[in-house]
Amino acid sequence: ATGSSCASSAAAGSDADADATRRASSRGAGSGSGSSGGESRYWRWRSFDVHYEVHRATGGAGAPAEASADVVFLAGFGCGSFHFANNLAPLSRAGGVDCWAMDIAGQGSSWPVDEVALDALKREGHAYDARLWVEQLKEFVRHVVRARGETGGVKRPLYLVGNSLGGYLSAAAAAELAKEAPGAVSGVALLNATPFWGSTAVFPYKGALPVPPLLLRLISAYWSYFSSEVNIKFLLNQVYARHEPLDEDPQLIAAIRAPTRHSHALEAFCSILTSPALRPDEHLTAALDGALDELHARGVRVAMFNGAQDPWVVPAWGRRAKRREPQTTLVELSPAGHCPHHEAPHAANALLAEFVRGGDPAAAEVLAEAQRAEGDARAARHLPQQGAFSVVAVEDGEPTTALGRFVAQAERSEAE
């Protein structure tokens, strides 16, 4: 829910957006070098300075190469482009693609330009909701990625990759882009995508700024603990099946905490907490279901690379998607939890590289290579194997857990 001044600035066109990108990238603490040799930049969008990273395609010797595709990554709630530090550079090399990672507004390093912009957002009743983020991703693709993604006047293939909330948003944005311009999106890879997001009609407040004082006081009483190192570490340990990545990445918790210290962070969190779903008047999974249906109807490839030990997005959800759309590629990594790209990056990168090359990531030789790559990486770091690591393609989507069987039975009963 944004006002007219926001809308008019979004309509400025690709040339204005490209100029804003150049201006913003020349200033700010986040501009300059990104993770593992990429570039960290800012793009002026509406009233926000949107942070993103870009890693250009490189050849075998590390020299710049002509990219065969553009791959846009979107992180989950509470994270930003930093969460793909182990994926962007390797994929730009192995896949020969340009890799982009954008922080959604109110997360990571994407925040209102200044206090004047923030005051305007409050007057306009701005909300940090899924609709805002879908529009942000679509505009980023059109005016930043696509401003460069041409080879001889021909648009390169575009792939969207999202983890958790980022997967939910990537699927929705890809479906809308494909509907608006057939062929605009070549594929979507979902990494433990959340099947639903946002509140339902039970809350009278729909996340619009300014936040009601009572809600602000209630949340602020919990905010210091919620954003503490202790709580973030606890949550990560709950959702990561493999804890070595947390031990090897001591900066991760600091990177997650940093945005919570922004002066607008508490208000943004309150808005996010109470903002509506993309389809608030329909069933819980309507938005993701509808997006996947649209993508398949328009011939857009969909792959799910899921951590099998995720306690939040449990395997039943991926298998449900496979049953609904059998042409969906579903690969389960084990042991891995909610963030397979960070817990098992070598396996995830092998699968993603094959996918963005237009190949079949569920092919036996690709699965074997992904499994071997992860095992070799662990052995090189002298990490305990703690049982076999597996990368398995799911063929039929039949549930294997009590929850999965319950969901399947409920859907069959509803269909009857």
From TrEMBL:
One of its GO terms (cellular component) is chloroplast. Residues 1-15 have a biased composition (Low complexity). Transmembrane segments: none annotated. Residues 71-348 form the AB hydrolase-1 domain. GO terms for biological process: chlorophyll catabolic process. One of its GO terms (molecular function) is pheophytinase activity. Residues 1-39 are annotated as: Disordered. This is AB hydrolase-1 domain-containing protein.
